[in-house]
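Section 5.1 Outputs to date
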Amino acid sequence: MACVALASLMATIEHEFLKPIPGIPLQDHQAPAQSLYKRISSLQSFLDESSGSGGAAIKDLEIRIRDFALKVEDDMEIQLSNFLLAKSRKSPTRKASRELHKTLKIAAGNAAELMDILHSIIKEADETQPSIRWLKHGASAEPLGKMVGRQRDRREIINQLTKGGLSNLKLLSIVGMVGIGKTTLAKSVYKDPTVQNHFDVCGWVTIPQEYNKTEVLGLLLRSISPGPESKTEKGKRSTPEELAKQVRTQLRYKRYLIVLDNIQEIGAWNDIQTCFPNDSYGSSVLITTGHFNLNLDCSFFYTHNHTHSLNLLDPNESWDLFCDIILSLKERVAPEFEKIKKHILEICDGLPLSIVVVAKRLSKCNNILKEWEKIRKEIESLGILDRNALIHYYNQLPQHLKVCFLYLGVFPKRKEIRVKKVVRLWITEGFIKPLEYDDFENQGYAYLKELIDRSLVLICNWSSDGNIKTCRMHSALHSFCVGESQKEGIFCAINTLEHPELPLSEFANSCRWLSLYTHSFDYYVLYSTNNPRSIFFFDDDPKTFVPFKLLRVLAFVPSPFLQRVSMHLGDLVFLRYLSISERYDGLGDIVSLLLNLQTLIVSSNEPQIEAPTIHLSPKIWELPKLRHLELGDMYMVDPPSVVKRKLQTLCSVVDPTTHCWKEVYFRCPNIKELKIFYKEDLEEPNHNTFGNPIILDDEYYSLQHLERLTISIWVGRIVTLPEPCMFPLQLKKLTLSGTNLSPTNLTVIGMELPELRVLKLENALSERVWRVAKGEFNELRFLLLEDNRLEQLLVEHRSFPSLEHLVLRVCWCLEEISVEFAECFSLESIELDRCNPSVIASAKLIQKMPQLWRGSLKLKIDGTEYFEPQSYTHAGESAEEDWP
């Protein structure tokens, strides 16, 4: 796990020495730190090139690099911590500075020795085995055999292969994670009589574990032309060029279907695709792969390119497959299976391979319930997938993605993960290296997208602005991820259910990432000289004490835990990320001491409408590296007295009786996301809900980087927006709650915000009728209305020309959805929650309207999907998206 150790060490050096906090005298240490950083970068490049390669010497060197990086980071941060604490307490710093300098110089020398060893290994490899220096191994997966719940997928692919007459070559891809049934589905399609009769020649080749061009072309030739492999001289093996020529000859002037099973790398595709003639006979190539974005070079050659994504089975499909396997092996389905049905479905998590393996094992035992407990513990601990196949996928990842992938194991199994949170954690840990023209957040999102494209991470929900909102790792991949991290001593997941009173010191000293959540796998660790850097709380507060000195992440911390250890929090000189799961009165005293803090988040499951607001000290603005400050509806802070150019996110309460945030907008010019809660302090003696009307700030316009704005009003007085519109023109997402929007306000928003993609209005309208004219909201994709007073939504012809999703909540007085919404060419879904029955009837009427310019319209009523019969006939329907 050298990639994790090196990434962490490089981030620490860069964060603490190359970009130090202003006022911290570390100039004398920058030269040895730069020398060390340069040599570590060379070691990291070596790992990038040798990823997944065999060889005992390379493996041994990777272990030495890991141990070196972990020890250096420990020694360096301990000495730096002593130096910073001495300075903060105004104690002598000379000795601590001298020890720190010595540690950096020794580390740079040791890194140079590792580089010498590296060069000697590379030289020896070049001289002895140059052809297999960085050999990577492929993966093979046994077909599942049974196919349940894939009939729609099967029909669509067959239709794609056989529809149309004579045309250029088609390319179809079946994509999905390991064990999801790509090969099984492809075989079912391949053997279908309709497909066999449609094509003159059919061929199938599975890309072997160790890809070899000559071998693969030979397999392909034998598949389409059984008999001698080549027509060359007897005893002479055909060259790749000769085999490719024979393949082209066999396929020329014929309608053919070629299936390439398990394509994982672009090199194999580039070798094989040159064999396929394009004779305009309606031929097709079908590939199976785990990679959604292989960047196949085919735009000039193929007239049709279709990607078919395989989703996990739903509970009914999973149980049908399980019972089908049991019945194929036994005479009947034992009633004991019903007792453990729920647990079987949870463990298998919709993955066909898991279902098949569990069913086969249970079918062979007499005591089903006893055997199931054994199987359950084994699967939760080790997973169900072939480890060699997963190692192949893992080894194909570049180093920066390996680290990000392993980090997902800190989240509990089957838990949805907020993308925004995990990207910020990656940034905090130093895993994100942004390009010159991009920022950290965008680059982190690109990293996540690449893991999704490789079928290693699943999308759960999309946000209203079209980005991925939540994701998760499949339980089988999670087991692999946790196992890889734990066996190297990087990660420890402590079962808080079984060990609620466990002292964590012994565990915390054996890992970099410590996660507290309920699980059923056994804890083990082989490497035990590390100190924790990140701690995650996913369960109720365990009554434990954790060593804090070198922590950089404290995530999802319960308030009782902070109260118990508050006297130690001031020593966290390296803490960069702090998120608290509930309000904590002593927060202000803590954060003002954390000079390295980048992210502070306070969250709560319930709105704190009646709770008094906590006023934080303005010292929080003195934190030099602060990027994200999310205080929710619980905290209020005065405007900053200094310019905060790094601040990108701000979420806080504003007192409407005294607020003056013009200084905030002036001194935080680079804010991208702003959430303001207007809330009066209910404990104030002069609180008066019937005071003068409140007119909101007119200074938002000055925030030239603002993209997402939320304004929530929790006061008992009339609140209005100034006119004309004060919002910045580049605004993409606007949420208004409790405001008093006039028709003029709405018209201005619709006409003067050209980039607006998302609009959410929650009891925000002053009138009972909203009339939307042609030319308003031209770029709006998502519209949410939650208003129990709204009676009419009048839409003119061609209003909302780009609208994709319409959500209506608690619209009891609304009479109907205007039929003009049917003319929104881009409309994909309508969601209704607690709406008038007449509104539901009008939505169903719109869904039935024949619209030749679009596919079927999805309709969700109070959380349940509603389909018209004809909507089932549309091919290519994807999984439903949850739009919050």
